[in-house]
Amino acid sequence: MIQTSHHVPVILVKNVEYTYPNKTIALRGINLKIAKGEFIAIMGKNGAGKSTLIRTFNGLIRPSKGNVFVKGENAQKHTIAELSSVIGLIFQNPLHQLFSNTIEEEIRFSLKNLNLDKNEIERRINGTLEIFNLEKYRNRSPLNLSGGETKKLAAASIMCRNPEILVFDEPTLGQDAKEIEFFINLIRNELSKEKTIIVITHNVEFAIEYIPRVILMADGNIIADGPTNEVLTKEMLINESSLVLPQIYQFNMALNLIGIPSPKNVYSKKQMFDFLKEYMKKNQAISRRVFNNGIRLSKCF
Fold first, then answer.
1. What's the confidence (pLDDT) of residue 276?
2. How far is it, in rounded angstroms, from Cα 50 to Cα 52?
3. Which of 12, 50, 173, 280 is geometrically suited to a Cys-Cys bond with 69, CB 3.0 to 4.6 A?
4. Which residue spans of the chain are classified as CATH 3.40.50.300?
């Protein structure tokens, strides 16, 4: 069992390198600290090393060089099962981790090795199905679910185990607004329990609005690590990682072009609309200017 310590990072990566059997170098001297209760995005183009990195956290990949420490203990000394009790990894493709005949069996199987009594297992199954709105599909095959429901089941099958650290690989990919809202509320609930949440994502809008810290990767290196609103608004870094500038940042630049100073600490569309509403109340000339440039500004969204 991996013991808890409040005096060390929950994840510490020291000089980690990894080379695949085909000689592809995926990680190059990675150093990283993640504290308990943090909400972090790992971003970068395909092949940057993001998925390889998170797989070193729970032992699915063992570093070629360097070490990963989980709650102060070297991950090399623990089995995948032991690490998975602390770190729950939800894959980008949910079908890679679902294989039971029914949704209920999927949750039950995930709980199998936790040494829980029968009543606790049933309580967790029922509670998990209710939280994820999967109760009505209890006896349905995972193969018969929609894409959004399949992603929910993949998350449910990990989160029912109550791991301290949750790692999501592209959770918003292919999801509609309602499904993304569900995920955001789910994350907020887990953060309220002091869980540590790590998200791999290409979604810059999602990251800048909700995630405080971003780790940017390119070619197996960490090229930036800091506050999301600072990292994702640096054009050089964005270009190097093949991402795009957040729409809200582009909108701010467009406002500057028509003579309106950019608002500070505005990272969501709602915040921007609220700012413009109040700002234009004070000056009708500004209102006309925004209206006349509406088409130009709308292209930012």
1. 72
2. 5
3. 12
4. 11-86+163-240
As a whole number of angstroms, the distance between CA 235 and CA 115 comes to 51
Phi (first) and psi of residue 184, to 5 degrees: -60, -45
- State phi, psi for 160 to the nearest 5 degrees: -65, -20
Rounded Cα gap, residues 237 and 226, in angstroms: 12
- Amino acid 249 reads Y
pLDDT value of residue 249: 79
Give me the pLDDT at residue 300, please: 54
Nearest of 256, 208, 203 to residue 232 by alpha carbon: 208
In whole angstroms, what is the distance from residue 218 CA to residue 223 CA? 7
Tell me how far apart the alpha carbons of residues 290 and 40 are, in angstroms, rounded to a whole number.
Answer: 35
What's the farthest any 2 CA atoms get from each other in the chain?
69
Q: Using CA atoms, how far apart are residues 293 and 172, in angstroms rounded to an integer?
A: 32
Q: What is the pLDDT of residue 119?
A: 94
Question: Do 166 and 190 meet the contact criterion of CB atoms below 8 Å apart?
Answer: yes
The model carries a pTM of 0.85
Q: How high is the pLDDT of residue 294?
A: 55
- Separation of alpha carbons 68 and 62, rounded Å: 9
Nearest CA to 59 out of 30, 74, 86, 79 is that of 79
Spell out, as residue ranges, where the chain has pLDDT lower than 50. Answer: 1-6, 295
When the candidates are 1.10.260.40, 2.130.10.10, 3.40.30.10, 3.40.50.300, the CATH number that belongs to 11-86+163-240 is 3.40.50.300
CA distance 208 to 233: 9
Token pair 């709602």 is found at 270
